Every structure is written in C-alpha cells, then in structure tokens.
Amino acid sequence: MVEGSSKRKRPNILVTGTPGTGKTTLSTALAESIQFRHINVGDLVKDKNLHDGWDDELDCFILNEDLVCDELEDVMEEGGNIVDHHGCDFFPERWFDCVVVLQTDNTVLYDRLSHRGYNETKLSNNVECEIFQVILEEAKESYPEDRVVALKSDTIEDMSRNITTLTDWVSNWHSAS
Ligand code: ADP
Ligand code: MN
Q1: For the segment 22-46, what is each residue's pLDDT rounded down to a tens digit?
Q2: Phi, psi of 76 (to 5 degrees)
Q3: Quick one: DSSP state of residue 65?
C-alpha cells in the first residue's frame, strides 16, 4: 500500500469521468452501501460559494481550486470519502487511495446528455472529451498508475458490477500503519 495513506483508517475514493458517465449515481449507491461520505464537488462549490463566478461560455461555475482543496482537507484526512467530480488534476495526489474513471459508450453518453438538456456545444464538447479519453489521461498523469482504474458504465449491470468491485476493494484495503 502506498505511503502517505498511512494515517487513514478508511480509504478515500475519487470517482471521476466525463459528465453523464454516472459518477453521482455510482457514488450515491456506493456511499450508502459501505457507509462512506459522498462529496459531490459541483454541489459543494455551489453551496459554499467556492467559485469565481459563472462561465457563460462553458455554462458552469468557475471553480476555485484552492478554496475547494482548503474546504476538503480535514475531512479527507479522516478517510471514508467518495469524491465525485468530472476533473481530477487539482486535488492533492495523497488524498486518494483509488481513482475510478467511469467510461461510457459515445452514443449512450450522447443520449444521456441530451436528456439532461445540454445544448449542441456542450453536448459535442463532452462527447469529444469521452472519445479522446481526456479524463483517463488526466488521471494517469495526476496519480500513480496502480491507483487508477477505468470502469465501464453503459448499463445498470455495469453499475452493479462496479459497486461490487469497489465494495470488495474497500473491504480488502488496509492502511499502511
Ligand atoms: P454524472 O454524475 O457522471 O454526470 P449521473 O450519475 O448524473 O452522471 O448519470 C447521468 C444519467 O445516466 C442519469 O440519468 C443516470 O440515471 C444514468 N446512468 C448513470 N450510470 C448509468 C449506468 N451505468 N447505466 C445506465 N444508466 C446510467
Ligand atoms: Mn454528477
């Protein structure tokens, strides 16, 4: 097990991936099943004003990375967190024992995001992000490769299998101390 995770009694998991891949759905179900805290970074940013205003072009808040990291530091030190966010390069590497990148078939993702009412630009930006595996690359650049796992998230069966896989992983996790 990686040094630096030594003080935590329970691990921290980052669930990342392109918008629409199922991060919030998986994180909610997993948190309930293993009694971990689910931290939806988008909601946190909105609720606690951890942003520098609204980006009209990208149609989202301009997240303030320093404020987000300061807000989460203490709780991350405790362990037992599932952090749900579409980006992963600004969190301290030491926070996470496992980085899950959800992946969804392009046409499935397109349908999910159009259901969500995304405009053409936002739709094509996100589908392109998925096609080019932008988040997986970001995760591999930001964390040791043995901590990053890509999981398919096309169907309900995929979701159930992912919950089982991660529940097993957590029960086998031991802190380094
Ligand atoms: P994200 O948080 O990554 O943006 P959500 O969890 O909000 O994604 O999921 C987007 C939509 O896709 C929701 O309607 C959800 O019910 C559906 N969904 C998510 N994961 C799956 C899956 N594995 N199989 C089928 N539908 C899914
Ligand atoms: Mn979400």
Answers
A1: 999 999 999 999 999 999 999 999 9
A2: -70, -35
A3: H
DSSP summary character for residue 13: E
For ligand 1, residues with CB inside 6 Å are 17, 19-25, 112, 153, 155-156, 158-159
CA angle, 79 then 83 then 85, to 5°: 160
Domains of the chain are 20-169 (3.40.50.300)
| 74 CA to centre of ligand 1 in angstroms | 29
Beta-bridge partners for 80: none
Two tokens, residue 151: 């999981």
Ligand 1: residue of 18, 86, 109, 112 to mutate (most ligand atoms within 8 A of CB) is: 112
Mean pLDDT over each residue of the chain, to the nearest integer: 95
Q: How far apart are CA 69 and CA 30, in angstroms?
A: 23
How far is residue 41's CA from residue 87's CA, in Å, rounded to a whole number?
10
| Nearest residue to 134 via CA among 125, 146, 143 | 125
